[in-house]
Amino acid sequence: MTPAARAQAAIELLDEIIRAARDGGAAADTLIARYFKTRRYAGAKDRRAVRELVYRAIRRAGERPESGRAALIGLAAEDAALAALFDGSPHGPTPITPDEPRAAPGIVPAWLLGRFAASLDSAELLALLGRAPLDLRVNRLKATREAVRVRLPEAEPTPRAPDGLRLPEGTRVEALDIWAEGLIEVQDEGSQLVTRAAHAAPGMTVIDLCAGAGGKTLALAAAMAGEGRLIACDVDRARLSRLAPRATRAGATGIETRLLNGGREAEALADLEGQADVVLVDAPCSGTGTWRRNPEVRWRLDPARLERLAGMQVRLLDLAERLVRPGGALVYIVCSLLDEEGAGQAADFLARHPGWTAGDPIGEGRPHGPGRRLTSAYDGTDGFFVARLCRPC
Hints:
It is a single chain. This protein has 393 residues and is of the alpha/beta class. It has 3 domains: 3-106; 134-186, Alpha-Beta Plaits; 190-390, 3-Layer(aba) Sandwich (Rossmann fold). Helices cover 39% and strands 16% of the residues. It contains 17 helices and 13 strands. It has helices at 3-23, 28-37, 44-60, 68-76, 80-83, 110-117, 122-127, 145-151, 177-180, 189-195, 215-224, 237-241, 243-250, 265-268, 303-323, 343-352, 376-379; strands spanning 134-138, 156-157, 164-167, 184-186, 205-208, 229-234, 256-259, 276-282, 324-334, 357-359, 366-368, 371-374, 384-390. Strands 5, 6, 7, 8, 9, 10, 11, 12 and 13 form a 9-stranded mixed beta sheet that branches. Strands 2-3-1-4 form a 4-stranded antiparallel beta sheet, with helices on one face. The longest helix has 21 residues, at 3-23. The chain starts with a helix and ends with a strand.
């Protein structure tokens, strides 16, 4: 592909990504993979160059652009070499006209800026659109970090998580023998740290209420060393079905799974009321803490969606409250930096449930309301809020 053809390909991909963000379609990574699957003529260098252009344009535009061309013209306004590719050559974009729409630069959609500014400083805002590292969690059921490093010498220990390793960007983890053997899982260091707030240990009864595909479930299983009762729940059949093969690969036997009926979860969990030492609620949220990995998520969020998510979080917290035994704990996690999803939700829970108290969940991050917050700027992780809410004995 010529450089101009790469620019046109980026425009076409950005059009697809913008439509998907507007209509609730597939993620950018998925759309890029599909695009090149039907264009075998594009070599590895072409794919890398186009992908880089696409993500530069996405990261630059806080608001959802009018079109892929507007997104790339906005980027070209700051890059003379890119602007020169709009030359009308075969397979390239047509020349830019003075009155064409161009995406404005920004970090946060305008409607969200005030909410972020209330609790994030400028460094934390700027870090939202950095590049995320590639982190692994060593599976303690099968290996130690030291043993994995012998077989993976290019990996460096992450700064805080005791089982964390960091690999060079672009490493194909699933092609590694140690991945196939179940010695490692891809998991951001921040995700590893907030999962440790459960203080899971052998012999406990632990419920992962929003398990999804089981990333945090597997970390809990490793901490429990195969002893005790671990129940993974979710309302999404497709996501939950991915846990079983992952657990087999990890050697995490004995995990119970429960597919819940949305809106009727309490019925399926009635036998567990008051039984759990720990209930982990990794709640569905806006994902604002993951913008480094998925910057187009900014274009999917709107006030109505945020309101729906906040209502779901309230319902999940109150559902989890019934499952915790006296003296047990509810660990609330969101990969969001918005207080209405994080510290505000935890504070409101404590107000609704007299006698419950907030414990110190982890020794990392910074205190924030009834819990702790991790940010890319100060912790080098994805953004998280975590609270450990304790039921009275």
